Amino acid sequence: QFHPLSPTNVSSQLKANAYLPCRIKGLGNKSVSWIRNRDQHILTIDRYTFIADERFAAWHDPYTQTWTLHIKFVQDRDAGSYECQISTEPKMSHFVELSVIAPTVSISGESDIYVKSGSIVDIQCVIRDALEEPTYIFWFQGKRRVVGRDPRISLMVNRVPPDTSIGTFSISSAKLRDSGNYTCAPESLERASVMLHVLKDEEPAAMQDTASTSASPALLTTSLLYLTITCIAIYFTKRTPGDLT
């Protein structure tokens, strides 16, 4: 008979491992088969696999008398009902429903980040609906992986129960060369990207110099006309009546 505590519903994360247990009491010399219900394909009989897909296997724990169907790198199409069948007459069956959960990966905030040179930058990669915490989150600037050798850069991953992980990419003092496309790549999950723009912070003196060299042509013409009239007035003031005749 099937143990009353054998689960009937199992959830697994996309591209992770799924374990479907079937606990049996008093099995004796009977065989145990796992069958995929959507196409009635026999997956395993005892420890032998009867499907070309190498992701499927079965293993037995003699201590708990549990026959477990193991599915590697779970895909969306693996969701559905699976039958644990004992070779009695008539057959005895226990059904397990597999649900496949697909985590979402996103970058917090806008798709473009604008900061001034010297600013602190924090880019957060948020992974939601994750049944398992990713073993790693890689970061890339363009096609180059950032490994954190720059003392200005730090990488951190935090788990927020029950199903969220946050990877943070930090720059303590942004430089112009830090501009570019940044991508977070969690283990076995989709990727998310953001564009970082580091702007040059101009000094006030430089801005004043720029303003003084960019005077309008109309202003220069007016100043030149004023200077010419002033020079003519001074010239005639210094002339004698005889000179004027």
UniProtKB/TrEMBL annotation:
Any one GO biological process: synapse organization
InterPro entries, A to Z: Ig-like_dom (IPR007110), Ig-like_dom_sf (IPR036179), Ig-like_fold (IPR013783), Ig_I-set (IPR013098), Ig_sub (IPR003599), Ig_sub2 (IPR003598), Zig-8 (IPR037448)
PROSITE patterns: IG_LIKE
Transmembrane segments: 218-237
Alphabetical UniProt keywords: Membrane, Transmembrane, Transmembrane helix
Stored PANTHER family: DEFECTIVE PROBOSCIS EXTENSION RESPONSE 11, ISOFORM B-RELATED, DEFECTIVE PROBOSCIS EXTENSION RESPONSE DPR -RELATED
Name of the protein this chain belongs to: Ig-like domain-containing protein
